[in-house]
């Protein structure tokens, strides 16, 4: 599903990213999120140098990278917030919350590339939301 504006007359800005391929180091989940935050929100977010194909490396990077000192945990997401996700209790994947189509996550999956996943469909791709974060 492509995200659309609430008035259904024009595509949501995120539509331009849907279908881009997943590429380690340039369009993996963190690299893609950095790109969107820079291009759409004007935020310069730090590089996290990690082997994006390693779940364990991703877990460690998302657990304790200093970049997260610039984010605050929030209970209710809004457009542009970081969505930390995982298959267990620890985050291993990140995406960006969009208010489009009732709310969902724009993210880059190794098997699918960039997709928009409605909130209710996250379990179908093996993910669950662990926390929301807003740039300070």
Global Rg: 14 Å
What is the number of beta strands? 6
> Distance N terminus to C terminus?
30 Å
Proportion of residues in β-strands: 25-35%
Name of the top-level CATH class: Alpha Beta
Mean pLDDT: 90
CATH homologous superfamily heading = endopeptidase domain like (from Nostoc punctiforme)
Could you say how many structural domains there are in total? Answer: 1
Question: What share of the residues lie within helices?
Answer: 10-25%
Which residues sit in consecutive blocks of at least 5 with pLDDT less than 50?
A: none
CATH architecture: Alpha-Beta Complex
Report the structural category: alpha+beta
Task: Spell out the helices and strands N to C.
Answer: HHEEEEEE
What would the CATH topology be? endopeptidase fold (from Nostoc punctiforme)
In the sheet with the most strands, the strands line up as 1-6-2-3-4-5
How would you characterize the largest beta sheet? 6 strands, antiparallel
| Large-scale geometry | globular
Count of helical stretches: 2
Architecture overview:
The chain has a single domain, classed as endopeptidase fold (from Nostoc punctiforme) (Alpha-Beta Complex), CATH 3.90.1720.10. Strands 1-6-2-3-4-5 form a six-stranded antiparallel sheet. A hairpin with a 5-residue loop joins strand 3 and strand 4 (104-109). It is an alpha+beta fold and 136 residues long. The mean pLDDT is 90. It contains two helices and six strands; from the N terminus they run H-H-E-E-E-E-E-E.
């Amino acid at each position: 599903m492509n995200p659309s504006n609430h008035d259904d007359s024009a595509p949501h800005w995120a539509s331009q990213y849907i279908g881009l391929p997943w590429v380690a180091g340039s369009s993996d989940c963190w690299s893609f999120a950095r790109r969107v935050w820079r291009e759409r929100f004007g935020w310069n977010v730090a590089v996290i140098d990690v082997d994006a194909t390693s779940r364990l490396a991703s877990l460690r990077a998302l657990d304790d990278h200093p970049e997260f000192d610039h984010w605050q945990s929030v209970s209710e997401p809004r457009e542009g917030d970081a969505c930390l996700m995982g298959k267990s209790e620890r985050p291993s994947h990140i995406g960006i919350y969009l208010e489009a189509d009732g709310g969902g996550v724009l993210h880059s999956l190794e098997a699918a590339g960039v997709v928009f996943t409605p909130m209710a469909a996250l379990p179908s791709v093996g993910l669950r939301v662990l926390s929301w974060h807003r740039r300070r």
